[in-house]
């Protein structure tokens, strides 16, 4: 390689390419003009080195300085770079910082595969995750992964209706197929030569997004605007102004299918990228949060059955029991009939009659085609099995119990009934042999005697449980166990296989009317006007909810924490116990609460804790969406939620008369006329006598006179077991309808205003529905008429 020799002295002014020597001892250095490499010949002076560097062409000069800096230690390079930056103008420094940004901030989404980023995102909260979606288009694609939001949906304790999800996806696939067949395909437009390069960049960008969709589920988006497509065809997202998670979740969805390159701006119900549509879990998550917000804020749309335009479809007398699913509601009445209602139209579609000869007190139905049954029990002691789809009577068990059948539950294998005769009975729902697992072990020997080789016919009595000292008012069945509530003020847990009572729960001071059991806790309502929560494992009372002023007749709870392990709940309970024991050691006296009989509504404060050693924390556990709904003879429905201290408090009080106020006002007019001295016409008298149930006291039924009087009447403190109360002489008995119309008419005139004592309620993710002494069934729909919530709620299952 050719080299030039350059002599450096103090008087060198630059610009000359010649080199010369002042003396034999002067320093010289050889610089390669091609790459600026310096060959050391002797130690140069600072001025001579500077002159030599400045004499190089710009590109060679930069390469020389860079190679020289790399020879320096880290600290010296840093100081040199800082000094160099200080010598520049501000605009130049900003330009350099912008060029350094990619080195200062590495984007993990660029370098990590989607599987890894998804695991990282699972450690963020939904609000933080939505903020991450504003970082870039790639972050947006990863954050809005549908499977990621499915995990967040499950973490909230919400359950989907998987059967409805599959059905909806199949229906959407058929719709898209029909649409594609009926849509004419446009021939591809031939692009001019000048557009070919731009078309290629668009295709590559689209392949990137589509490749991600193929490998990693469906990407959906929220509602931010997309700027018009730029000159090179790359659409860019506008800046998102997401202030909080609530801001995002309050936006109404609006599907935008205008671009195939990016996720649609509004999260649709189904993905828009595939011929095999799948539910968009971000959309479901968003709508479920909006629905929960309606519950918290009390936003609902009231409704009633029958529809106000069709009052003739109402039951003739009060409604004792209801159950509803997403589409249907079934009601049982004192008029001895069962009605099936369409919740969408609020119309009666079928009446089941001709089997019961007294009030229908309890029922359960399963409309699935493989089940298709309604089971009912009544004051006549009958249990009747009906075909849901036709109303046909399948079987009538007229000797199921010796007294009124007060409650029943069934699953795919067993039917459980309980009665005022103080017994619980277990029946098989299908024909089985004795060695089948559904047959209780304790009953097999007796059944083998009667059926040594023959199968056991369906609805055969397998086992009778006895142990309560009064009417068994309510039962629940869960994973081989039965929990029963009785007028003897106790709750009992039973093992179906052995037929033994495994645990007795005490705490209520009067008869217990209703009970719910989910495997971890028992929730009950009583004539002592309270709702109580018990630990199923230890029988400890972990919460007492005072709020009603009369008998708590019906209760339902959803805690939403079945995804939380029992070990985690127990650890939470132990932490509360430790605080309690620490408070005692520090001189406090937390035991005084139990001595004074004070109850705890769920607080973990040692001064309020009333039970230790439980397997679940005070209040029973649960998550942010936990909810208890109770109905009472005080004519109110209370929605209970936990406050910041963990206490259950009334979040909302609902009243039926607020819904029925128009109907009430129409009934006030005849009363006002009577007060003014106007006599009712013959037509009015006939109409009053034709509806004897309106205003009739509930105690006009044998069931009401004994069972409900037993619940409502106080029990003497010295008596441990409260037996059935004997009705007084003024109590009206009505068992099989043996009184004439005139007898009922007298009661109707005495109690013209209908009572709204709540008998039964049920709620799901969207609605509360309840029945009462009124003939009209009322409900509160928390979708509040929102079409998106109504659409999404089809896929919402129960919250465990």
UniProtKB/TrEMBL annotation:
Bias kind Basic residues: ranges: 731-750
Name of the protein this chain belongs to: WD40 repeat-like protein
Ranges occupied by WD repeats: 312-351, 353-396, 398-428, 465-504, 505-544
The organism of origin for this protein: Aureobasidium pullulans
Residue ranges annotated for the F-box domain, each copy included: 106-152
Keyword Repeat part of the UniProt annotation: yes
Comp. bias (Basic and acidic residues): 1-10, 190-209
PANTHER family: F-BOX DOMAIN-CONTAINING PROTEIN (PTHR14604:SF4), WD40 REPEAT PF20 (PTHR14604)
Assigned keywords, A-Z: Repeat, WD repeat
Stated family: Belongs to the WD repeat MET30/SCONB/SCON-2 family.
Ranges for region Disordered: 1-44, 175-214, 584-607, 660-692, 715-752
